[in-house]
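Working notes for the structural subgroup meeting. M.R. asked for a predicted model of this chain before we commit to crystallization trials. I am recording the input and output together here so anyone reviewing the notebook later can reproduce the run.

Input as submitted:
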Amino acid sequence: MTRSTHRWPARAAVTAATAVLITSGTAGVTFAAETDRAAASVVAYDPSVNSTANFAVVATTHPDTVGCNGYKVTGTGTASGKPTTGGTWTQDEVACTATIPGKYDIKGTATLTESDGDKLFISYELSAPLTSDTMVYPSGTFKITGGTGNYAFATGSGKMNARVNLLDHDHVTSTIMGDILYTG
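Returned structure, recorded in token form:
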């Protein structure tokens, strides 16, 4: 009887040790699986639209001095990046100071034209604080509204930022970053 009495605590200790090993082993495997899953879900964003335009602008007083109290702005220059591989940038916009208190309210359209003549059309809405500084940094969104050639059925959207020196209309920069889709 003494022998069997000693066996039960030994068996209980082995069972407890086995349970600890199994539990620890499972926890380690579960943690490793979760860690691998978390690492696998981190994917770098590679936008299909990532373009920079450098251009000059001509600003004229907008005829609506009450509802807009701003400017009509046209611009031309160059664009590079993707999806276009380089070409020209043309834009037409209205920059109002009366529609959003304390901010420039900018709405416009632009065309990116590649050297082969294919065109990508976008519309955009930007805003920037009204300030006494000569540097203005409008930001907002753009939408792809279509195009010609390879961009005939293009749609998409993303973020747009600009850098404008109000005293230097020859060196304006804008960037667009987002995604392009083809519906055709």
